[in-house]
Amino acid sequence: MLIATTERIAGHEVTETLGEVFGIAVRSRGLLGNLLAGLKTIIGGEIHQYTEMLQTARQHAVDRMVAEAAQRGGEAVVMMRFDSGEIAQGITEIVAYGTAVRLKRLA
Asked: Is residue 40 a contact partner of residue 47, using CB atoms and an 8 Å limit?
C-alpha cells in the first residue's frame, strides 16, 4: 500500500476517496525503563529505551492504519500524519491517520 504525506501521488490519479483511517498504539514505560531514563536525564544524551518504544509504537500505528485502509478497499493513504500525546503519567498514545483512496495509474 502506498502511503503519502501529500495530497497527490506522482503518476497516479485519485479515483475514489474512501474516508479517514486511523491506527492507534498506546504504550507504557516499564518501571525499569523509567529508572534507566531517570538516570540518563542526569547524565544527558539520548534515552534509547524511549526512542525504541516510540519507533515501535509508530510502526504499530501505521500498520493498523494500513489494515483499516485495506479493509475499506483502499490502495493508498494520502495526507498521512502522526499525532501523539500522553494519556496519563508514563502512558503515550501514537496515532497515524490519513485518507484512504483508490488510485488509477496515469500513462
From this structure: yes
